[in-house]
Amino acid sequence: MNAEINKEFIFNYLSGKTSALQKQTVDEWIKNPDNEELFYKWLVEYEYRHPQYLTDLPEAVERFHTYADQFDTNPTFTFPAAEAPLSARRHLGMWMMAASLIAGLVFGGWFFRNDFIYQTHTTAFGETRSLQLSDNTKVILNANSSLRVPRFGFGSTSREVLLTGEANFAVTHTPSHQKFIVKTDKGFEVVVLGTEFTVYSRQQTAKVVLNKGKVQLRYREGETQKQVMMKPGDLVTLDQGNHLNREVTKQPEKYAAWKDHRFVFDDTTLEEFAKIMDENYGIQVIIKDENLSKRTLVGSFRAENAEELLGIISEIFNIKIVKTGNAVILSDNQYQ
Question: Which domains does the chain possess?
Fold first, then answer.
């Protein structure tokens, strides 16, 4: 059946006004990951127009998770062809329960509990990932990072994202001059119109490096809300108390060298190198000798993975590396 799947068609489907064959068509259409976001959008719109019932939020959350656990976590949902109508009904039941949950969360102010409202992009240790958002902004996520993007209204009503970890942004300017805001869980945010910059937001420190354009950095220091305008080449560092340090770098691009699997060290101590390995690869680096931990590294090195990077460090410093579980021990060969 070559029926066109549009919003009206999906609304009929959700209202139970479609035939068994039409339900099967929708069932197959939903299996395509490219259609998932559009279906979510129409699902929420349908629920706003046709609320099913008021729900007790905690009970609804528990009921939905119990129901969802009956199914494989793979979103493609494969069932025998002969059971297609039943599969469609199961899909419908699941989506309708999700829609009712959405309504409960919206009216209850529980947005942060609702995975349907936001799409989260994540990277594992040692992984980088390139994204293009719906407003054509390009993002490259560094290892062990996440970016949360609203599923609905992004690019039309607002352009706000939440970053945990590190990412490089190439923001597209819009005809309406709409601001793009990168929020973090470290108490600061970056506001831009169209530019290229890198945001680093880890446990110990945070950094913003501006390559092109102009951005406004908003942050809270104690009880005081502050802001600073950044120019190309500006490097702003924030400690755990959000105390700001501003300097100018002639090579802002080196702070996003990880995009090309390059590591740039500028008088970086082995102690600082250990933190980099933990943040990017989840590997604990143990340095036995304090003098060794203070030795510094200068240069740019390309490494595809943790093993290559550790091998480079071993050759440069002539040190011994011993692996033990998810940790490595660095020791000076001259003391062996």
Answer: 7-113 (no CATH), 118-254 (2.60.120.1440), 261-335 (3.55.50.30)
